[in-house]
């Protein structure tokens, strides 16, 4: 018997539904197709037509892996159970790779990334290896599908990317694009940064301060645009309200004194105590309403996604003023 006779390669494993999986397979999937460890090793040997990309994950063709191959391999590695689906939350791409998939120009292209981050539940026993970094979380978010792959939502992907960025300028570019590009609200990003315990890093805090200013500025511009576009009466912009000779009642973003209607933008991005900040806001609103002032609460997301509906809410409050008891007289001062 000639022991040097090469093993005749078997046909490739049957393709599954995703194009990435047709090119990739785990050792468990290959063995389920009837291939032995010896046969798999022979196909991956020098001159073979397969290659091992990660522990237990194989690319079923020769040549340089594409970005799609690397992303698919990272997810297969994170599943680790091969042909048997992992129970519970599924792994997803996060960090800079996720931002590249979301279309961020502040993230390097996938072809330039030396590492791909994969988000998994904290309970998973899985180690980073090669060019895959495993990121664990007590609770994983619901992934979004991008190019057929499970990808972390932008706010979570931003936090995981920021955890590895070394300077405030790089962090600032990512945070600013997240907000200016309309991917998510500042508050959502800051909450994720807080959960990841990144707000103790000076260079991250510096970038967050810029982010909050950017987010409020954009929201104010959208509020101005809503008033102009939908023909609302011009309000007094950015004013403080006080009782005559009395206490400060708080600032509002727009105020119609004849109708006693105020608009307040909720651009809160609490870093630590969300409940305390919300309670403070609620107390102010209730105080104003006891004085007969109607407070319309708008969020940046509502302004961005449903400006016409929000204009209708404000118009309705203005029209209803004649049916209400006259409001208490307040002093209006520039803020």
Description:
This protein has helices at 19-23, 27-32, 37-44, 67-79, 95-101, 154-162, 168-180, 186-195, 202-229, 274-290, 300-305, 307-319, and strands at 24-26, 51-54, 57-59, 92-94, 116-121, 132-137, 144-146, 149-151, 236-242, 248-256, 261-265, 294-298, 331-334. With 335 residues, it is an alpha+beta fold. The chain has 2 domains: 88-217, no CATH class; 230-334, 3-Layer(aba) Sandwich (Endonuclease, Chain A). The longest helix is centred in the middle third of the chain and has 28 residues, at 202-229. The N and C termini lie far apart (93 Å). Residues 1-9 and 13-21 have low confidence and may be disordered.
Strand order of the largest sheet: 12-11-10-9-13
Instruction: Give the proportion of residues in helices.
Output: 40-55%
Oligomeric organization of the protein chains: single chain
Rg computed from alpha carbons, rounded to a whole number of angstroms? 28 Å
Question: What is the strand tally?
Answer: 13
Tally of alpha and pi helices: 12
**Averaged pLDDT, please?**
85
């Amino acid at each position: 018997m000639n022991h040097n006779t090469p093993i005749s390669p078997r046909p490739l494993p049957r393709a599954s539904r995703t194009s990435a999986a047709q090119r990739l397979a785990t050792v468990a999937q290959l063995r389920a197709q009837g291939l032995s460890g010896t046969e798999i090793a022979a196909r991956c040997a020098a001159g073979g037509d397969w290659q091992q990309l990660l522990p237990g994950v194989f690319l079923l063709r020769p040549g340089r892996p594409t970005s799609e191959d690397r992303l698919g391999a990272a997810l297969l590695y994170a599943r680790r159970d091969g042909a048997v689906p992992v129970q519970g939350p599924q792994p997803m791409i996060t960090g800079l790779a996720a931002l590249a998939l979301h279309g961020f120009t502040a993230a390097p292209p996938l072809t330039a990334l030396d590492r791909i981050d994969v988000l998994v539940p904290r309970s998973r026993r899985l180690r980073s290896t090669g060019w895959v970094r495993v990121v664990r979380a007590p609770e994983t978010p619901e992934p979004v599908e991008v190019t057929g792959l499970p990808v972390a939502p932008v706010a979570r992907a931003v936090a995981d990317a920021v955890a590895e960025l070394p300077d405030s300028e790089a962090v600032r570019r990512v945070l600013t694009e997240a907000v200016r590009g309309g991917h998510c609200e500042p508050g959502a990003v800051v909450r994720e940064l807080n959960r990841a315990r990144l707000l103790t890093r000076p260079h991250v805090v510096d970038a967050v301060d810029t982010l909050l200013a950017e987010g409020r500025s954009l929201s104010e511009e959208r509020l101005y645009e809503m008033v102009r576009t939908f023909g609302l009466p011009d309000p007094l912009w950015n004013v403080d309200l006080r009782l005559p000779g009395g206490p400060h009642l708080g600032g509002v973003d727009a105020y119609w004194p004849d109708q006693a209607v105020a608009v307040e933008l909720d651009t809160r991005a609490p870093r630590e105590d969300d409940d305390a900040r919300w309670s403070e806001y609620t107390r102010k609103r209730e105080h104003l309403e006891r004085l007969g002032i109607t407070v319309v609460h708008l969020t940046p997301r509502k302004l961005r996604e449903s400006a016409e509906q929000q204009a209708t809410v404000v118009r309705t409050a203005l029209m209803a003023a004649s049916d209400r008891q006259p409001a208490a007289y307040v002093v209006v001062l520039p803020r």
